[in-house]
Amino acid sequence: MYMQSNIEKQVMAGVAVVYTVRKLTSRFAIECYALALSFAGAAYFVSLPNVFQNLTHVTQGGVVSVGVFFLTAVLQTKLAVQVALFVAAASLVLMGVDVARSAATPTRRFA
Predict the structure, then answer these.
(1) What's the whole-model pTM score?
(2) What is the mean pLDDT of residues 36-62?
(3) What is the DSSP letter of 61?
Protein backbone atom coordinates (compact mmCIF):
# COMPACT_ATOMS: atom_id res chain seq x y z
CA MET A 1 0.00 0.00 0.00
CA TYR A 2 1.35 3.42 -1.02
CA MET A 3 1.50 6.16 1.60
CA GLN A 4 1.70 9.80 0.54
CA SER A 5 4.41 11.90 2.11
CA ASN A 6 3.65 15.24 3.70
CA ILE A 7 5.03 17.15 0.73
CA GLU A 8 2.80 15.18 -1.66
CA LYS A 9 -0.23 15.91 0.52
CA GLN A 10 0.61 19.61 0.63
CA VAL A 11 1.10 19.77 -3.15
CA MET A 12 -2.16 17.95 -3.80
CA ALA A 13 -3.99 20.24 -1.35
CA GLY A 14 -2.58 23.26 -3.20
CA VAL A 15 -3.68 21.81 -6.53
CA ALA A 16 -7.16 21.20 -5.14
CA VAL A 17 -7.39 24.80 -3.89
CA VAL A 18 -6.28 26.23 -7.25
CA TYR A 19 -8.70 23.95 -9.12
CA THR A 20 -11.60 24.96 -6.86
CA VAL A 21 -10.83 28.67 -7.12
CA ARG A 22 -10.61 28.44 -10.91
CA LYS A 23 -13.99 26.67 -11.06
CA LEU A 24 -15.62 29.17 -8.69
CA THR A 25 -14.33 32.14 -10.68
CA SER A 26 -14.97 30.78 -14.17
CA ARG A 27 -17.12 32.74 -16.60
CA PHE A 28 -20.02 30.30 -16.32
CA ALA A 29 -19.92 30.42 -12.51
CA ILE A 30 -19.92 34.22 -12.52
CA GLU A 31 -22.91 34.20 -14.88
CA CYS A 32 -24.72 31.89 -12.44
CA TYR A 33 -23.88 34.21 -9.55
CA ALA A 34 -25.16 37.22 -11.51
CA LEU A 35 -28.40 35.39 -12.31
CA ALA A 36 -28.94 34.39 -8.67
CA LEU A 37 -28.15 37.86 -7.34
CA SER A 38 -30.39 39.58 -9.88
CA PHE A 39 -33.25 37.25 -8.97
CA ALA A 40 -32.69 37.94 -5.28
CA GLY A 41 -32.58 41.68 -5.95
CA ALA A 42 -35.78 41.63 -7.95
CA ALA A 43 -37.49 39.45 -5.35
CA TYR A 44 -36.51 41.95 -2.65
CA PHE A 45 -38.32 44.81 -4.40
CA VAL A 46 -41.22 42.90 -5.99
CA SER A 47 -44.00 40.98 -4.28
CA LEU A 48 -43.77 37.74 -6.26
CA PRO A 49 -46.99 36.20 -4.83
CA ASN A 50 -48.91 39.27 -6.02
CA VAL A 51 -47.29 39.11 -9.45
CA PHE A 52 -48.30 35.47 -9.85
CA GLN A 53 -51.79 36.16 -8.57
CA ASN A 54 -52.23 39.00 -11.05
CA LEU A 55 -50.73 36.87 -13.79
CA THR A 56 -53.38 34.18 -13.29
CA HIS A 57 -56.07 36.79 -13.90
CA VAL A 58 -54.29 38.17 -16.95
CA THR A 59 -53.77 34.78 -18.60
CA GLN A 60 -57.51 34.54 -19.19
CA GLY A 61 -57.09 37.34 -21.74
CA GLY A 62 -54.67 35.36 -23.89
CA VAL A 63 -51.05 35.65 -24.93
CA VAL A 64 -51.29 39.32 -25.90
CA SER A 65 -52.58 40.20 -22.44
CA VAL A 66 -49.66 38.40 -20.83
CA GLY A 67 -47.20 40.30 -23.03
CA VAL A 68 -48.83 43.63 -22.17
CA PHE A 69 -48.82 42.67 -18.49
CA PHE A 70 -45.08 41.95 -18.44
CA LEU A 71 -44.18 44.98 -20.55
CA THR A 72 -46.23 47.28 -18.34
CA ALA A 73 -44.85 45.68 -15.18
CA VAL A 74 -41.24 46.14 -16.31
CA LEU A 75 -41.69 49.69 -17.57
CA GLN A 76 -43.54 50.89 -14.46
CA THR A 77 -41.28 49.38 -11.83
CA LYS A 78 -38.28 50.77 -9.94
CA LEU A 79 -34.96 51.23 -11.70
CA ALA A 80 -33.33 48.64 -9.43
CA VAL A 81 -35.77 45.99 -10.62
CA GLN A 82 -35.22 46.97 -14.25
CA VAL A 83 -31.46 46.66 -13.79
CA ALA A 84 -31.89 43.30 -12.07
CA LEU A 85 -34.05 42.05 -14.93
CA PHE A 86 -31.52 43.30 -17.48
CA VAL A 87 -28.66 41.55 -15.66
CA ALA A 88 -30.73 38.35 -15.44
CA ALA A 89 -31.55 38.47 -19.15
CA ALA A 90 -27.91 39.12 -20.07
CA SER A 91 -26.79 36.26 -17.81
CA LEU A 92 -29.27 33.89 -19.39
CA VAL A 93 -28.16 34.86 -22.90
CA LEU A 94 -24.48 34.42 -22.03
CA MET A 95 -25.21 31.09 -20.34
CA GLY A 96 -27.05 29.99 -23.47
CA VAL A 97 -24.02 30.92 -25.56
CA ASP A 98 -21.81 28.87 -23.24
CA VAL A 99 -24.16 25.88 -23.46
CA ALA A 100 -24.31 26.14 -27.25
CA ARG A 101 -20.50 26.30 -27.48
CA SER A 102 -20.19 23.37 -25.13
CA ALA A 103 -22.66 21.33 -27.18
CA ALA A 104 -20.86 22.19 -30.42
CA THR A 105 -17.45 21.20 -29.04
CA PRO A 106 -17.66 17.86 -27.22
CA THR A 107 -14.26 18.28 -25.54
CA ARG A 108 -15.09 21.71 -24.07
CA ARG A 109 -16.57 22.03 -20.60
CA PHE A 110 -18.44 24.90 -18.95
CA ALA A 111 -15.66 26.05 -16.66
Answers:
(1) 0.76
(2) 92
(3) G
